[in-house]
Structures are given as structure tokens and as C-alpha cells.
Amino acid sequence: MKTSYSEMQLDALRELANIGSGTAATALSSLVGVPIDVSVPSAVALPLADAVDAAGAADSYVTAVVLPIFGDIDAIVLLLFPPEDAQTLCGLLGVDADSEVGLSALGEIGNILGSAYVGALGMMTGLELEPRPPETATDMLGAIVSSVLATGAEGTDVALMLDSDLLIEGTEASLSFMLVPSKDGVGEVLSRLGVNG
Amino acid sequence: MVRMGELAVSRVSGHLLASIGLGSCIGLVLVDDTRPLAGLAHIMLPVSNGDLESPIGKFADRAVPALLDEMTSIGASRSRLHAVLVGGAQMFSCGSSTGVDIGRRNEEATRDALAAAGITVRKTATGGSKGRTVRVHVATGLVTVKEPGADEFDLFATAAAVGRSR
User: What distance in Å separates the CA atoms of residue A23 and residue A38, rounded to the nearest whole number?
Assistant: First the structure.
């Protein structure tokens, strides 16, 4: 069971996350009509409990959009927005984040961004990938992240998370974009990138 | 703090065992009826299928016996133990490749392992779709649960705990 990745492999994954989130940022920008800045992505491979900690304070409340990916690899794309940032984002779209319309708008954003990300991923790796309908939840960060990690946790005790922040220019709002591939998925991606040693 | 896949026991009265943000995971609490002895396991998945290398609290079928052993090693007696289950929510319906609710499977596997060990489940705060936080007060055996949008509430108190607070 692969439990650690070389710096070269993590670099390749970061590059992947960079291009994926750049594509997603462009999509978000055209949705809200405001430029979006992308942070340098981080790629971390951590034991499961540490991975939950790395995502943020377990008891903080966030709105999450979960987008499962199937196809040549299994993965989950997770978008996290602190509630105030969900409001800002919805405000730009002219809806209230606390309403059903708002929640569905966030889900739709998740869908569009996730699909952009997955599309970029597929293009760079040659993998056939298909996103499934997203689900939205507002709950404790710890509960959300642990539930997402648990789905891929059978057979591995390490979570690989590729994390980028998308910052909405002119606001304080940012959303966190995480790709959590299944264990086999990582190996497959690394092979396609030519760095599976 | 008992995080995913971890378990802890204590007999120090000032201690508080807690798991924050239980989604599909089950927080298994064991409290001794008469003495300040408590344990908490943060269980992620139902069955280990022979996996012996993972963190001991990760799978229900290994976590339950392990937690019981730790409790007895600090002086607990099985006949005086109460079990409380928290968590096992289904936060996302897409959450399992087999299409079966992991939260529910975790609860069932934990209950099965407890039944096999002869431990009674006294109270549960499980299921639904929301995350929970559980806190166990070692001194009194009081178990409290916090669900989002609601105040923290007392889920279970041992007879001794109730007696001491009167």
C-alpha cells in the first residue's frame, strides 16, 4: 500500500491541481462577472485523521458541494465555502444563500466548477472521467470531510488532497477546492503523468 | 480529542473525551456505571476484512474489542459498562460506491460487535443527515451531544452521575 509520494509526484499533482483550478476559476469568473484569483495549490498526503485537521477547524460551519467522479478513476471533488462567503457568492448571482434557490445555485456552481476541473484533469491525463450530480450540505467541516474521506478509506489510511483556494476579487470571499482521489485513482493519475515510480 | 480512527480511555476525573464532527462515523462511548471510567472510539467503517495495519479505531469489528480491552485494563468491569452510540448519519447519498449508507452500516456493525461482547447499548443519537459532536465527562459518565442548529443536550447519564448531581 503506497503511503507516501515523492516530491516529484507531488509536484506533478500540484501542477494538475493548478491547471484544474485555473480552468474552474475561469468558469466561475464568467458566472459572476468578477475576476477570480487562484492560490498556489497544495498537494498533501496525510493519515486520515490529519487530513481532516488539514481541511480546517472541525467544528467550523461550512457549506459544501460534493461532486463524485467516476470513470477511469474514482474521486470526489469537494468545494467548501464558509457561510459568509457563500452569501457573497450568492449575492453576486442575485440570490440569497439561505434560500432553496441559493442552495441550488451553490450546487450548480459546484457542478460547473467541478466539471471544469474534471475536464481539465481528463485532458491532461487522457482519463475518461464523468462527474455525477452534486450534493450540497451545510454542516460542521469535520463531519463533511470525514464522511467524504470515509467513502474512499477502505484499503488505505492515507488521504491525498489537492487543495486550491479561489479568491473572488474585490471581496474577502474565497472558496476551497479539494480533489480527493481514491487510492487506486492516485496511482492511475500518476502513471498517466509519467511519474509513477 | 478522539479523531477519525482513534480511540481513547480515561479514568482521570478532570478529563473530557470528545469527537467533533461525526458524519457517517460512529462515536462509540463506553462508560462505567459506578466509577469515573470512560472510553470513546471514532469508528469510520464497518468491517476490516482482515486488515490489521490500520488505526485500531477505524473499523467497528476491531474498535469494539480494542476499546473494551483498554477499558478493562484501567479497571472497568464489563458487566458495569454502558454503551452509547452517536453519529452514523448519511450526509451524502452518493457516499458509497455500493450504494449502501455507510453511516447505517457503521451503526449496525458497532451494535453487532457490542452484542457479541455482551454490552448493552443504552442510548443512541444516530442516523439523519447532520453532523454531531459528542463529549464524555469522565468524572460523571455524562454524555452530551451537539447537533447543528440546536443546543448541546444530555444524551445519557449513568445512575452514579445522576446520583452525584443531586
Answer: 10
- Is A83 in contact with A61 (CB distance < 8 Å)? yes
pTM of the complete model: 0.88
Give the ipTM of the model, two decimals please: 0.86
Do residue A147 and residue B129 have CB atoms under 8 angstroms apart?
A: no
C-beta neighbour count of B134 within 10 angstroms: 27
Is-contact A54 A161, C-beta < 8 A?
Answer: yes
Number of CB atoms found within 10 A of residue A92's CB: 17
- H/E segment holding residue A37: strand A36-38
Phi, psi of B158 (to 5 degrees): -70, 165
Q: What is the pLDDT of residues A67-101, one digit of tens each?
A: 888 888 888 888 888 888 888 888 888 888 888 88
Tens digits of per-residue pLDDT, B86-134?
Answer: 999 998 876 445 556 899 999 999 999 999 999 999 999 999 999 999 9
B148 → chain A, closest CA residue: A139
In angstroms, the Cα distances linking A124 to A44, A71, A181, B99 are 20, 15, 16, 30
CA distance A138 to A115: 21
How many CB atoms lie under 10 A from the CB of residue B50? 5
Rounded Cα distance, A180 and A75, in Å: 6
Find the catalytic residue in B17, B25, B41, B161.
B25
| Best residue of A154, A157, A161 to probe chain B, by most B CBs closer than 10 Å | A154
pLDDT of residue A31: 86
Determine contact, residues B60/B109, Cβ cutoff 8 Å: yes
